[in-house]
Amino acid sequence: MSTIDHPDFEAVIGLEVHAQLTTTTKAFAAVQYDYGEPPNTLVTPLCLGHPGTLPALNENLVRYTIRMGLATGCRIAPRSIFARKNYFYPDLPKGYQISQFETPLCSAGHLDIELPDYTKRIGITRIHMEEDSGKSIHDQDPLHSLIDLNRAGASLIEIVSEPDLRTPEEAYAYLNRIRQIVQYLEICDGNMEEGSLRCDANVSVRPRGQQAFGTRTELKNMNSFRNVERAIRFEIQRQIDLVRSGGRVVQQTLLWDPARNETRMMRGKEEAHDYRYFPEPDLPPVLVTQALLEQIRSELPEMPDLRRKRFRSAYGHSEDDAVTLTENRHLADFFEQVVVESGNPREATSLVLGQVLRVLNERGIGIAEFPVTAARLAGLIALRAADQVNSTAFQQIFNELLESEESAEEIARRLNLMQVSEDGFLAPIVAQVVADHPDEAARYREGKTALIGFFVGKVMQASGGKANPRQARELLQSALS
Ligand code: ADP
Ligand code: MG
After folding, report:
1. pLDDT in tens, 246-265
2. What is the pTM of this model?
3. 218 within 8 A of 254, measured Cβ to Cβ
4. What average pLDDT does this structure show over 400-416?
């Protein structure tokens, strides 16, 4: 899929991303939210909207939101208030959602996205705190919709971008960046399929060169990164086709239908929301002191950009390698553990980028589920660095590490893979191999030095794979000259 590269039109895209925070308890209720628990088991009278209940602010909701704000260069409001967003929906028993309206906790930030040919700074309008709604389930009962209120009141932030994005690829990169940042900050698991990261996309088109924005539509119901990109691509094309055939874009909310790969109408302008926001009377303003800000700032982890630069200079990584290794914080942490344990950044890099990532991809797991500790990998690196195993054995030992608890050295001994590199062992084999192949030896001496590979192969074979190939080559070269 390539980007829409229409000569006459340009797209304008702004994303509203909801990130569910990994705070232990909900935003205003002392109960834990977890995905996938039996319906309506993680609820208190407050989550059910019972009269007489009062919200109490979870301090970590504020701290996590500030982390996100600081990581994206936002201004943090010293005083911000909660607001009630009023609307009726069966999965919202209170009849309103506690959110922020006029004074979001964070505003005027930015983040940088990277595309194959350029990088670009995307403005972040605001990041505000809110509580989640429950979930309506429409596909379990043929006649009824079911309500699960476990999620009601879970802590959320909404991250609203400026309309700075221009292509589906940029939108994808932006979303990926948000996920990377929330994962580095350890405030959200970033899982779109489970709904812990959700994204609405606002899309409009305008003739190239025109300053004013066109009328936008809002796309919902995209539950994967790829679907966000697809839905935006589809919608841009639909709007361009519409405008070019003399029509006008109507402001409306559209649902992405992943089965049919198209957007369809959800509600039109006539139903546009009037949320009647007003200040939440049951919660005091949130006051953020300079001391709190400094404390949170000092606890921020090294963020991906800095880490990538550090990897490049500290370990001599190429840009691509550094990007891959820092993509995910846990992978970067693991890699650095292997470096510390082995003291060998070069081998640690090639092992993690090669074998380790291959296993993660094949098994569809994250580094957290990878069965081999950094220390055991370091043991393998040490064997290789000391030239005690050859590359075939290296691979074999790595595969064994995945299956057993033994150290690399124990495996090497058990499988008899320790390389024998004393001259006393190799020299007779080399002499025998040369004697057995007089024609090749003569041609080698006449200048066909490429035959050295043939001889090394014979020596490896004769030694049962235990010879050190580099040493075999050296001995052969002197025997043949
Ligand atoms: P609402 O509250 O109705 O969703 P906002 O003004 O908060 O509207 O904007 C929501 C999102 O829409 C923001 O991400 C913003 O960047 C984006 N946006 C605003 N105008 C346009 C436009 N004309 N085309 C595309 N995106 C837009
Ligand atoms: Mg909106």
Report:
1. 999 999 999 998 888 888 87
2. 0.83
3. yes
4. 91
